[in-house]
Amino acid sequence: MQRLRTFLEHHCDNPSLVDVIDGLMVACKDIAYKVQLGSLAGVLGSAEQENVQGECQKKLDVIANDLLKNSLRAMPQVKGLASEEEADPVACNPDGEFLVLFDPLDGSSNIDVNVTVGTIFSVLAARPEDDANHESIYLQTGERQVAAGYVLYGPSTLLVLSTGNGTHVFTFDPRIGEFSLQRESVKIPATTKEFAINMSNQRFWLPEMQNYVADLLRGEEGPLEKRYNMRWIASMVAEIHRIITRGGIFMYPYDSREPAKPGKLRLMYEGNPMSMLIEQAGGKATTAFEDIMQVEPTSIHQRVSVVMGSADEVDTVIRYHKG
Ligand code: AHG
Ligand code: MN
Ligand code: MN
Ligand code: MN
User: Fold this and answer.
1) How far apart are CA 154 and CA 177, in angstroms?
2) What is the CATH T-level fold of the domain 4-183, as seen in this structure?
3) Helix, strand, or coil (residue 278)
4) Which DSSP state fits 84?
5) Which residues does the annotation say bind Mg(2+) 1 (predicted)?
6) For the chain, first and last CA: distance in Å?
7) pTM here?
8) Looking at this predicted complex, what is its ipTM?
9) How many Å lie between the centroid of ligand 4 and the Cα of residue 117?
10) Nearest to 92 by CA among 76, 111, 112
11) For 8, which of 93, 177, 206, 207 is 20 to 30 Å away at the CA?
């Protein structure tokens, strides 16, 4: 079984990027260990503090964030970082080539009920003249990502990664402490009968989304002429992994509750990295009106409406939004 570093050295022409991914995995292996221990490591429960998102942080949100931050700051290749759990960007090493943006623990509402969570990361290039204390240098479109990935802390610990040449799946082997290649260049089926959305928000969606889901729920009798099945795990990282593995469509769409926030999910460290992985695997990722990776960022923590997965199903959703 090919180990991660060997695979990267063949697939990635920038040795510094290989080092950054390797360094991220050091922190993620530590997070995986703490997730496995759960209450035995005293990592469950609330941290009794709020993050910049207005969310009550879990202890493991903070622990995972600190592990990643410390690991990245120790890497000369990293110029700066941004995190869901940090109000502002953090400057690391002035000569670093890369910016790393991450969601240290995605799906953290699930951690206390022992349901799969994960870490999501996005890597952008930095310029020598960039000041990593300034938010502006991080505000690059998703198309400019040089790498994206997630580590899934589930029954197995998996790494799903792209450096621009396909999306690849690695399994962590605790016997040797290494990630080994499981599937190279995965391809998402173009069609699906499985959808993922939080139905309790139905009354807040745009009419176009309400119409699509209403037709979808009419099954064979409806215009979409097929019986769908539903999933909702409330960990984006687990939903996207199911889709990368067997197809499907995941939606966290525009929501009228807070018009200033076009959705719940964050563009820079959830929408963009997942879009790269999905599109590198032959799927599609849109806001329903434009490609997610073409959205011009205006702030590090900005929200984005998310529709991603099997290409033909995403095209159907786009068609419903064409008016
Ligand atoms: P995070 O735990 O990093 O804040 O992200 C949670 C996100 C995403 O993982 C998931 O798909 C979504 O929140 C679930 O939202 P609801 O609880 O509203 O269903
Ligand atoms: Mn959160
Ligand atoms: Mn998240
Ligand atoms: Mn998170």
Assistant:
1) 16
2) Fructose-1,6-Bisphosphatase; Chain A, domain 1 (3.30.540)
3) helix
4) T
5) 84, 103, 105
6) 50
7) 0.98
8) 0.98
9) 9
10) 76
11) 93
Residues making up the binding site for substrate: 106-109, 198, 264
Ligand 1, from 265, 269, 307: best to mutate by most atoms within 8 Å of Cβ? 265
- Counting residues of the chain whose pLDDT is more than 70, the rounded percentage is 100
The predicted-structure confidence for 82-132, as pLDDT tens digits, reads as follows 999 999 999 999 999 999 999 999 999 999 999 999 999 999 999 999 999
CA of residue 169 to ligand 4 center, whole Å: 21
Question: Could you identify the residue written with the tokens 């939606």?
Answer: 251
Distance in Å, CA 227 to ligand 2 centroid? 33
DSSP for 95-132, please give it.
T--EEEEEEEEETGGGGGGT--EEEEEEEEE--TT--T
Ligand 1 site, CB within 6 A? 55, 84, 103, 106-109, 198, 234-236, 252, 264
Which ligand has the nearest atom to the CA of 110? 1
